[in-house]
Write a structure and sequence with these properties.
This protein has 389 residues and is α/β, with parallel strands linked by helices. It has 16 helices and eleven strands. Helix 2 links the parallel strand 2 and strand 3. It is globular.
Length: 389
């Protein structure tokens, strides 16, 4: 039976790899219903002409004329603006890959969840910004949430048959490009240095988050919501080889790990095929060639972002949303050359301190609109602090 799928954020790394699996599966396996992007006209036009979706949406309305020209005569329906992206998410599918980066992915992913189908979640910010609201929407609609981040996908695979008797979840981290760098070295890190990840090939924003370890902090918060575990039951360990993607320790002392080559097509394929497994074009592990697997504790002095994320999770309420928005704004400033690398975590901490004085973290934003309003406030706070950094 042909599976109808949509890809929200089709021009990013996750979106491209999802469509690669569709391409390799051959005709009749998948029917692409909708594709969305922000403003990557050339890429999404090429994808649309290859996969022939019913609908293509661009969030950036300024790209309307360019996309219309590219798809002229194709018969493909086109939409523009945030509402068009949400419309794409509401199209009837069997599976939706939610891969829009950042808080911009919240409303489209909620729209996809509202259809009550299978949703591959590759947008951790949905749970970081609005965990309570998001999980309530999943429960109400009866949707099946399938984590795509390699770490959460690993835990999902290990926990699928047995969720009782869990002592702790262990998220692995590659450590990023600066895991062995000194604090002094980090003071002069360039944009190019930070984007040069030693293991994974990712987009700019996620690459910077990996370099600061904020990515692991966001995953910590995401894991808490996905698997209903408090901060005290979730640990992070640095594992440079990225062969073990995460582990679960049980009360009897057993530790179960999911292993595989560091290729995002494995968790993507698992989500796309669930509850069955499907083939993925990834390099197979050759254990005879693996020289060793190493692990060590993350350094939260050099990488305070991980500490800030755990503190935000434990504070609850509005704190995770402020953490995420402040980080997005700070990362954008670093990529533009406006702040130094170590300034990212400093700006996030300042934003959290500013909002802690102004409001109580106890009350979480109750709807998507409240989340986005809080997101805007946190970004404005970062902009104010950049001047004095």
């Amino acid at each position: 039976m042909t599976k109808r799928i949509s890809v929200l954020g089709s021009t990013g790394s996750i979106g491209k790899n999802t469509l690669d699996i569709v391409r390799r599966a051959g005709p009749g396996t998948y029917d692409v219903v909708a594709l969305t992007a922000n403003k990557s006209v050339d890429i999404i036009a090429e994808q649309a002409l290859e996969f022939r979706p019913e609908f293509v949406a661009l969030a950036n309305e300024g790209c309307a004329d360019a996309l219309k020209a590219e798809l002229s005569g194709s018969g493909i329906e086109i939409g523009f603006g945030p509402d068009a992206v949400i419309e794409a998410a509401r199209r009837s599918t069997d599976f939706t890959m939610a891969a829009i980066i950042g808080s911009a992915g919240l409303e489209p992913t909620l729209a996809a969840v509202g259809q009550g189908r299978h949703v591959g979640l590759a947008n951790k910010e949905c749970l970081v910004c609005a965990g309570e609201t998001f999980m309530a929407a999943v429960k109400k609609s009866g949707a099946t949430l399938l984590p795509v981040d390699s770490e959460h996908n690993a835990i999902f695979q290990v926990l699928e048959d047995e969720r009782a008797g869990v002592r702790r979840l262990i998220l692995t981290a590659s450590g990023g490009p600066f895991r062995e760098a000194s604090l002094q070295t980090l003071q002069s890190v360039t944009r190019e240095d930070a984007l040069n990840h030693p293991v994974w090939s990712m987009g700019a924003k996620i690459s910077i988050d990996s370099a600061t370890l904020m990515n692991k902090g966001l995953e910590l918060i995401e894991a808490s919501w996905l698997f209903d575990r408090p901060s005290a039951q979730i640990d992070v360990i640095v594992h440079p080889q990225s062969i073990i993607h995460s582990m679960v320790e049980y009360i009897d002392g057993s530790v179960l790990a999911q292993m595989g080559s560091p290729d995002m097509r494995t968790p993507i394929a698992y989500a796309m095929g669930w509850p069955k497994r499907i083939a993925a074009p990834v390099e197979r592990l050759d254990f005879a060639k693996i020289s060793g697997l190493t692990f060590f504790e993350p350094d939260t002095v050099k990488f305070p972002a991980l500490r800030l994320a755990r503190e935000a999770l434990e504070a609850g309420g509005q704190a995770p949303c402020i953490l995420n928005a402040a980080n997005e704004q700070a990362v954008a400033a670093f990529l533009q050359g406006d702040i130094p690398f170590l300034g990212i975590a400093r700006l996030v901490e300042q934003a959290l301190e500013t909002h802690a004085k102004a409001v109580s973290f106890a009350e979480a934003p109750g709807c998507a609109e409240s989340v986005m309003a809080l997101d805007r406030d946190a970004r404005a706070t970062v902009d104010e602090h950049i001047v004095n950094l």
